[in-house]
Amino acid sequence: MARGATSALTVFRGRAGDRNERGMLGARVLGSELARHTGQNSVLIGQSRPVLNTSWETELAAASPELRRLACRYEELLDAGLTPVTAMNRCAAALATLPVLVRHRPDVRVVWLDAHPDLNTPATSATGYLGGMALAGATGMWDSGLGAGLPADNVVLGGVRDPDPPEQRLLDDGVVATVPVGPDMPGRLEELLADHPVYLHLDCDVLEPGILSTEQRVPGGMTLDQLEAVAELLADREPVGLEVAEFQVAEPGSSSTVEASSGAAELVEALSPLLRELGAR
Length: 281
Prior knowledge:
The protein has helices at 22-38, 56-79, 94-104, 134-138, 165-172, 185-193, 224-235, 254-278, and strands at residues 7-12, 42-45, 83-88, 109-113, 155-158, 177-179, 197-203, 238-245. The chain has 281 residues and is an alpha/beta fold. It has a single domain (7-278), classed as Arginase, Chain A (3-Layer(aba) Sandwich), CATH 3.40.800. It has an eight-stranded parallel sheet, sandwiched between helices.
């Protein structure tokens, strides 16, 4: 376990292939709750901008300057021996974080909790959605220009329920290990993680629709209690970081922000066993 670890908060809300602005707003709300819960200040990277809703190439080009700032932030934190805790608007921001993480911790196991595997590439994606290519980029299945280096063998997908056909073929071939939603998730994760350090990527759509506001709603998701059980398991390993994506404000406006703040508090409470172990006290 990461005894004596010190975490550092980052809020990323720059462009990351967003199809609406709600994730940018949500990252700020979640970042504020993480700061309140931990008593730490956060570093903000990026700002809310009009969405582009265009091709992945254009989205990536527009996002790259701020994604590179996020990568630099991770380099600084990991060089200093700090543990990253990050609120990010979209999963595509992991294109910047995971390559840096694996350079510093090549033995890390990434637990990717998401209703979708995000293993599409520009050649296989039917939609060209950048967020659906995030994990594929980090594992070197395509070149994002932001690095790679994460072996697919070092990834465990949890809670996947809505893969595209090319992604399903990868899962069927055992390219990436998977653990379905269920009461035995912690036990199955424990078997796969062994004694390796762990980093959690949480896409909030892994949760049952209606628990939080998310862009994607896929039935059969995790409960907050199940998420807390996973957080407790990871806290008992050697956790080396956490990133949370796809938490969004339902609609811009004061009432939705209040509702999102309440949801953020519930989410952070579920993650609190892991946050405590990461040093975010």
